UniProtKB/TrEMBL annotation:
Residues spanning the membrane: none
UniProt keywords, alphabetically: DNA-binding
Ranges in a coiled coil: none
Name assigned to this protein: OmpR/PhoB-type domain-containing protein
Keyword Magnesium: no
Listed PANTHER family: TRANSCRIPTIONAL ACTIVATOR DOMAIN (PTHR35807:SF2), TRANSCRIPTIONAL REGULATOR REDD-RELATED (PTHR35807)
Pfam families per UniProt: BTAD, Trans_reg_C
Amino acid sequence: MLQDGAPPDQGRGTTVRTLGQFSVVINGIRIERWRAGRARQLFQCLLTEAGKPVSKATLIDSVWGDSTARSPDVSLKVAVYHLRNLITDAHRRGHGSGRPQLWIDLHRNGYSLTASEAVIDVDDFERALDAGARAAKAGREREVRRHYRTAVDLYTGSYLPECQDVWAMVRREQLKDRLLGAIDELTLLARRDGDRTVMPELHQRMLQIDPCREESYRELMRWHAGANQPSRVMHWYFTCANQLRTQLGIEPDRSTRQLFYDAVRGDLAARTGGPAER
């Protein structure tokens, strides 16, 4: 790693939020004014690959893209300069001592974001998912439930929701897919244990992440049919139909329509115990 301006020393605490909203707080000071030069986008791009060197060419393409900037190399250096100043300023204003827990390091052909000891919500989220996956592989179901539940609680929204760059959208979908897999595992465990009481919560959580997940609508319809709540069955069916038409331009699957017809006729209630079934 090249020495490109020694960073100030390490401070009291840094928190970075990326799920549901984006914020950086250093020693109690929130960075608000990211200035010109796309410093915010550059920080987010480096954060997505935190701890790993990212080439200058990749950063320029990811952050500036097809921009008409005449000197992209200069634009990158200016953005890095602004980022370092923002970090240093927040660190000092928060009366931090030592090296900041965030810093932009120079490498031979690029830059990396060092985030030693900083609290980053997406890292905590992925650690919980990883721990749950390891527990599942080892057959430790109690730990699976605990870790996956932690991941569900930590996921407060989409990754960098305001960023529409391709690299951010790819990362966003990867995280959503991982969470959906974890919730699906929780529903399988609950169903196997005969615990139907948690099913509505889990399936509604999946629909917050993927509003077109038809199987979750069917599960909610079954549950409310078993609870003798036809108005809720209709609510979920028409919500499903509206989401599919609006977002995908399709109608509900035949199995979803048949389930709805059976439920409103009362046929489904006789075949499911709803929330009382254990």
